[in-house]
Specification:
By secondary structure, this protein is α/β, with parallel strands linked by helices. Helices cover 28% and strands 21% of the residues. The strands form six sheets. Strands 1, 4, 5, 6, 7 and 12 form a six-stranded parallel β-sheet that branches. Strands 13, 14, 16, 17, 20 and 21 form a six-stranded mixed β-sheet that branches. The structure holds zinc ion.
């Protein structure tokens, strides 16, 4: 048990945040125990009989890599933003072969909010700028693999916009993608450095193209259109909700972030690739920009999360309160022969043979696991001698080891022979 303490601080936040949620459950089980003098009732509190899972337990050790692509062309002319369809296809296949699950952007955000679990090694695929090759070439490849993806669109760059030429995607194509579940998100109006005082080119419907540096109120007004106006245009034109913002060139500062945050963007994306963890800040999520002339970037990104195959670091700690444990964490019971129970269904699919229960003073016990209800239970048959008892439950879910541990107390005197409320079968 002591070796597990090394990973505890990582999950402290999880456990703390979960403390409040099921307070009522532990209270009611304590009350049930207190008001019912009969041993049978004491060992079957209401909460355990009908476990309510209000929120799934998310794997806080999962990692996500996010890729950013631009144009897909057979003949590379701009290796900084282009990739061949064959190379792209091979990379998508490599994700599958490496056991990395491609998830949607909205699933990534739901995981960050603690609302939805994701596989331990996940990837999100994004396409920037709205090129028609993303519609014509990338989309069929993504369909072939059944991968979700996100399009980051700058509105003036859509065909017909002041910056949208013949290679640009059209609004009709975007609507087609939207209808088929493709996530469409914001990438500004004119795709320029959004930091105050940088040289930009004014562009837009009826705007004469001018190179200039904007400061003060003029800059703020321009920013409103870049960050807020472009979002509204996407939302109105496509009837969607836009909650992600890919910062053009990845250039931002605190002020840019603040405006984006105030505009209702939940997450902001850069191009500084790094594995995203549960605690990564939402306003600077790094993506790996994949370019034809730097194939190593993709390889390195996959390697960053591609190596975890078990071992101590891969153990995910789960809050005992979310497992409706019995006795509850911190509870004091009146018997030295308690029934120990936990409901593992909040963890997700459990590999039935993988469930193991350890009890302090007893070691591994022959606990029962019911795959139907997800309940693991063990009736202690040998009196517990200590005033407190720790339980460790481990199991495998989606190939990953998950562990929960908690401690309950045993009322003084209960450990002695005289006051044991459970009649032993021998008597
Ligand atoms: Zn871009």
């Amino acid at each position: 048990m002591i070796i597990r303490f090394a990973i505890l601080p990582l999950f402290l936040a999880l456990n703390l945040s979960m403390c409040k949620k099921q307070e009522n459950v532990s209270q009611s089980s304590q009350q049930a125990g207190a008001s019912s003098p009969t041993p049978a009732a004491a060992s079957t509190p209401v909460a355990a009989a009908a476990p309510k899972i209000t929120k799934p337990v998310v794997d806080q050790t999962a990692q996500v890599i996010i890729f950013c692509y631009h144009r897909l062309v057979d003949k590379i002319r701009y290796p900084g933003t282009e990739i061949t369809p064959a190379a792209f296809d091979a990379q998508m296949k490599q994700l599958k072969d490496s056991g990395i699950t491609v998830i949607s952007m909205q699933d990534l955000l739901a995981w960050k909010r603690g609302e939805k679990n994701i596989p331990p090694r996940s990837a999100v695929v994004t396409f920037d700028d709205g090129w028609k090759s993303q519609f014509e070439v990338a989309w069929p490849i993504m369909k072939k693999y059944g991968y979700p993806f996100t399009m980051f669109i700058y509105t003036e760059g859509v065909r017909g916009g002041s910056l949208g030429g013949g290679e640009a995607i059209t609004w009709e194509q975007l609507a087609d993608m939207r209808d088929n579940g493709v996530d469409i998100q914001g990438h500004s109006a004119t795709h320029q450095d959004l930091r105050e005082g940088h040289t930009i080119t004014l562009a837009g419907p009826g705007v004469k193209r001018t190179r200039t540096k904007l400061t003060g109120p003029q800059y703020e007004q321009w920013m409103q259109n870049e960050v807020v106006g472009s979002k509204q245009l996407l939302e109105q034109r496509l009837g969607i909700k836009v909650n992600c913002f890919a910062v053009p060139f990845g250039n931002y500062n605190e002020h840019v972030k603040e405006i984006a945050r105030n505009s209702g963007y939940e997450a902001m994306f850069t191009v500084y690739g790094q594995p995203i963890t549960f605690t990564s800040p939402m306003d600077a999520i790094g993506r790996y920009a994949i370019e034809a002339n730097k194939p190593k970037v993709f390889e390195d990104a996959v390697k960053m999360i591609g190596t975890s195959t078990g071992g101590a670091a891969a153990v995910a700690e789960v809050g005992a309160k979310d497992l409706s444990t019995q006795p509850a964490d911190g509870e004091t019971v009146r018997t030295a022969l308690p029934l120990i129970k936990a409901n593992l269904s909040a963890i997700g699919q459990i590999e039935p043979g993988s469930v193991q229960m350890r009890v302090s003073g007893l070691g591994v016990v022959p606990a029962n696991f019911d795959p139907k209800s997800g309940t693991v239970s063990y009736q202690v048959t040998q009196k517990l001698h200590e005033k407190s008892c720790s339980v460790i439950i481990s199991a495998k879910s989606q190939g990953k080891k998950v562990e929960a541990h908690w401690t309950f107390g045993i009322e003084e005197g209960a450990a002695g022979a005289a006051t044991s409320p459970i009649p032993t079968p021998k008597k």
